[in-house]
Amino acid sequence: MSILTYRSVGAAATVGLIALVSSSIVAQQPATVQQPATVIRAARMVDPKSGATTTNAVIVVDRGRISAVGSNVAVPPNARVIDLGNVTLLPGLIDAHTHLLQNYRGGIGGDDPNMLLTVATMSPASRALLGVKMGREDLEAGITTVRDVGNSGWNGDVALRDAINAGWVQGPRIVASTRALSAAGGQFGELQPAAQHLVEQEYAVVSTPDDARRATKQAFYDGADVIKVIVNTGPRVVSLDEMRAIVDEAHRVGKRVAAHAIGDTATFIAAEAGVSSIEHAYTVPDTVLKLMARKGIFLVATDYPAEFYVDGLGGPVTPEQHAQRLRGAQAFAKSNAERLMRATRMGVRVAFGSDEYYDAPGYTRGQASLLTLQAYQEAGMPPLEVLRAATINSADLLGLADRIGSLETGKLADIIAVDGDPLHDVKDLRKTRFVMKGGVVIRNDGAMK
Length: 449
Ligand SMILES: [Zn+2]
Description:
Layout: H1 6-9, E1 38-46, E2 53-62, E3 65-71, E4 80-83, E5 88-91, E6 93-98, H2 111-121, H3 124-140, E7 143-148, H4 156-165, E8 173-176, E9 180-182, H5 199-202, E10 203-205, H6 209-222, E11 226-230, E12 232-233, E13 236-237, H7 240-252, E14 256-261, H8 264-273, E15 277-280, H9 286-295, E16 298-301, H10 306-311, H11 319-345, E17 350-352, H12 365-369, H13 371-379, H14 383-397, E18 415-418, E19 432-437, E20 440-444
Helix pairs in contact: 3-4, 6-7, 7-8, 8-9, 11-13
Bound molecules: zinc ion (ZN).
């Protein structure tokens, strides 16, 4: 999560993440049963790598993987054919910044009271079950893989990941972080001493480099695929020495670090320490962007269209309050757009991260998450680059580029179809009609004329 209820306030928020990724996440291969191949046909298919559109697209899926793909590819005998008609086939989308075990309510009044209520009243088991619903909504919107970056209670995310991998429930492939590492207090607001035990349900607090090493090792023991660090929350900052210790421990075991960081100091500490991605970076200086470009550190830009910051939350609002919120949200969206385009001009790669964690009336979790892609487009990013952020770039960031992120022979069959042409307008990515994950059909709305 990003701290500041930035949606209702429209002020610069403050959160960062660090994520690492492992290879254990994609271990599940549902299709060990010998079954005939499945063939998917559609009018068009877009390859995010080349940007090319193929017409009369055919994808052959065999045992959970793509075995052939192209225009007018031969259909194997006995294959089950799914003809989707006038739609565009794409690789499954990848959201590199989710909080599936969190569903805050705007009416409660922002992040601080929501966090307190969630952590104090919901068990990790209860939150994992909430995550089943959120994950299902992501999957049905075409998000087939997520990197879930904390705020999951103590290991609720690991339980959800493992349940999905075991086939107990359907959900996206999850790269899990377990509890985020942070400075004192995590991202909690003011807490009385007696209430401070709540912090450790949600965060692993570190105060020295030794602490940082211990917490990183503990996260891997707990099942983390990636390490998330809250580099700054208000005036509390994880130091450069501590960040270096975290990155060192993670890299020792082949894992990555995602850093929530906002502002000159925190983004510099994250980039200098060598994290794999900086989350949010609502304010970030050119010197740090340069460092990010040189080191190949991704920007996970957790942006939303201004209207959504205001209207997506619901809650009682007077016309005057609405107008004031809208002005704040528009200024925030404009500032985010400026830093996004500044980053891409300087050669920083962008990975899609929604940071969606509020209930959004009228939207499923997945539909609300895809609004971030609209924000990238409105900021000036070409649709193909937006599509790359949500596919090949995120796959690279997660360390899964050999398995997901594109439609190629040998890749996992994570395939979606949308009505329209997302290379013309990425809002069409919300017109989901078909979703397949690992060769299993999750959603099929039928052929489109
Ligand atoms: Zn977040």
